[in-house]
Amino acid sequence: MRKWILAVCTLSMLGCATRGEQDKKKADLYLRLGTAQIESANYPAALSDLLKAEELDPKNPVIHNNLGLVYFFRERYDLAEKHLRKAISFDARYSEARNNLSRVLIEEGKYAEAEKELSTVLNDLTYPNPEKAYINLGLAKFNQKDFPAAQDAFARVLKTVPDDCVASTYFGRALFEMSDYARAAEALDRAIGFCQKNLYDEPHYFSALAYYRLGDKAKSMTRFEELIKYYPTGKYRDKAKGMLSLIRKGH
Known about the structure:
Blueprint: H1 2-39, H2 43-56, H3 61-73, H4 77-90, H5 95-107, H6 111-122, H7 130-143, H8 147-160, H9 165-177, H10 181-195, H11 202-213, H12 217-230, H13 237-248
Helix pairs in contact: 1-2, 1-3, 2-3, 3-4, 3-5, 4-5, 5-6, 5-7, 6-7, 7-8, 7-9, 8-9, 9-10, 9-11, 10-11, 11-12, 12-13
């Protein structure tokens, strides 16, 4: 009887292991599908695939990281934070998830928590993308109006990735906020070239404002006109129209 019971238990355990392996393989497939959908910005389909992956492999940190990204892009920061914290709980050395969590915390206005996570990421000398963490650190400092610290963080990014759109834009914006309009205009003009492929109109707008503050109304108007022409659905289009109207009225 003991041998029979042991045999049954062993067979049962083998069956469970096989099912577990099969579930992990299915989860990996859904993870790959969901990740591809994120890259295509098809977030509803990505969420559907990743939730299926989570159901099959609920302790997989990569699945939770990618779920966090989907919820971030859908502006459900509460759910993004939840899944990114789960990713870290399953792998404390998962610096990519920790960096993504910091970005969510910045959106939530939890700057001290974000900076704490970023400190851990930047102390991980195995993390291959420290520039991502410095961008987030720069955004945290910028949003707290610590513009010198923000400028320093973005400068660190530009040393290794000189054509980064976000770092270039916010480096220029930090200079603008410190009233260094000449250097701001120069930095933002560089950012314009890096950001056009991303359809990102922010450097155009703040470049125009920098020239306006410098008293170069002709250059300012040119930048505003370019923004309206090249970014018909841009975030700053209406503001650019308003500024053009003011300049033309002689203000």
